[in-house]
């Protein structure tokens, strides 16, 4: 665990088991309890791929597809015994597909592992690519900062949960010159009554992962403070953003040119983050989903 001190610029090399030593009285860890679902499907003949972004209803999905030329309006795709028909093509290239029967995701679904892992999913990933506190099913990707926690450690720390169903936006690089023009994918979130109460009583909120941070800052932006709320967010946090809730962040190491890299740069300052990443590379920290973590205080 790399520890980055925003005020002093100090950087420490620690172990994750030392995290409790960095918590103050009345701190609160906020974690994302979303559960990854098998949302990637292949046609029976293997020639087409469907990534379910959102089940509008059990038989009507918003999807990304490959290859696009085989998913024109009226085209059909068969997965198992289910036949899907392309009903709409959205401006961003996503499709609305309607099914004539329920698709069995336990039989035909695959986890959409990050592309940088360089492999297809395996049966063991159904549990390995989950946090130990995963509960609310709906994510395409895991909130990977939470993967570091064991039930034993979590039981000793003050914590609360939010839900944000992580979508494909977490993998999308920023390609525009003006950051304000980058379009984030919308993701569904929920903050419960108990969590909002605990946050209001905490002296410092420590977001576990960028998804927890995005959830909390969305609610505070829309309501002035963290209150019980649910909805969808496409918030894009980049340098210049005014943080209202989060006082510290535990996060993994991210891909360059990603929205996540810009979020941590907004929180700690770009120069300090570049310095921290340079040290992490020199000290051979592991990056990405199953990698090491960074605590920004």
UniProtKB/TrEMBL annotation:
List, alphabetically, the Pfam families matched: Queuosine_synth (PF02547)
Q: What is this protein called?
A: tRNA preQ1(34) S-adenosylmethionine ribosyltransferase-isomerase QueA
Please name the GO terms of the biological process aspect recorded for this protein, alphabetically.
tRNA queuosine(34) biosynthetic process
Q: SUPFAM superfamilies under this entry?
A: QueA-like
Q: Name one GO molecular function term.
A: S-adenosylmethionine:tRNA ribosyltransferase-isomerase activity
Keywords assigned by UniProt, alphabetized: Cytoplasm, Isomerase, Queuosine biosynthesis, S-adenosyl-L-methionine, Transferase
Enumerate the NCBIfam families for this protein. Answer: PRK00147.1 (NF001140), queA (TIGR00113)
């Amino acid at each position: 665990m790399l520890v980055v001190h925003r005020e002093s610029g100090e950087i420490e090399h620690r172990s994750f088991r030392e995290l409790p030593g960095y918590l103050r009285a009345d701190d609160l860890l906020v974690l994302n309890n979303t559960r990854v679902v098998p949302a990637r499907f292949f046609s029976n003949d293997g020639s087409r791929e469907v990534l379910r972004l959102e089940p509008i209803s059990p038989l009507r999905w918003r999807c990304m597809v490959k290859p696009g030329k085989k998913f024109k309006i009226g085209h059909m795709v068969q997965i198992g015994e289910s036949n899907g028909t392309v009903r709409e093509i959205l401006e961003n290239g996503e499709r609305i597909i309607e099914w004539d029967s329920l698709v069995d995701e336990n039989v035909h679904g695959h986890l959409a592992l990050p592309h940088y892992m360089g492999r297809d999913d395996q049966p063991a990933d159904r549990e390995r690519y989950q946090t130990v506190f995963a509960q609310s099913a709906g994510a395409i990707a895991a909130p990977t900062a939470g993967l570091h926690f064991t039930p034993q450690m979590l039981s000793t720390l003050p914590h609360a949960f939010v839900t944000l169903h992580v979508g494909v936006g977490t993998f999308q690089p920023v390609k525009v010159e003006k950051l304000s023009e980058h379009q984030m994918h919308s993701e569904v979130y929920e903050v419960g009554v108990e969590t909002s109460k605990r946050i209001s009583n905490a002296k410092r909120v420590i977001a576990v992962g960028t998804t927890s941070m995005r959830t909390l800052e969305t609610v505070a932006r829309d309501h002035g403070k963290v209150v019980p709320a649910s909805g969808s967010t496409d918030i894009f946090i980049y340098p210049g953003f005014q943080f209202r809730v989060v006082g510290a962040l535990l996060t993994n190491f991210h891909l360059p040119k990603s929205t996540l890299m810009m979020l941590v740069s907004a929180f700690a300052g770009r120069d300090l983050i570049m310095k921290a990443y340079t040290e992490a590379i020199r000290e051979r920290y592991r990056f990405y989903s199953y990698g090491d973590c960074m605590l920004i205080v």
